[in-house]
Specification:
about 120 residues; six-stranded antiparallel sheet; about 30% helix; globular; DUF4937; DUF4937 domain-containing protein
Length: about 120
Amino acid sequence: MLIKKIVCEVDAANAEAFSIAQSQWGALSHVNGFVKQAGGWRKTADGLITAEIISVWENRAAYDHFMENEHDSIYEENEQKAVILSIDVTLYEEDEPFIHDLLHNPDIRYEPDWTVQKA
């Protein structure tokens, strides 16, 4: 399995706009090789708000195909880029326990509208 961890810094004034945009990633549910995505908010000491999103893919090939063919159209359509101050993406190839820990982090206030599951 391939896990993608996305960490975005958002200022408080744009938190709602980011959340609305993040809830528009439902098209992922029909992408071959996609398994699940979930995320939420983590407050930081510097006053910014951090959004953390974890997506799970069957394998690297499926993820690479998505990034090359579908990612940009979803990202541009929901206009999320305009409200992100910074973004950090990390990819992991890990097993089920690691995924479970990432998707159930007690420091994150998960947003139900951000969850997408394979159709």
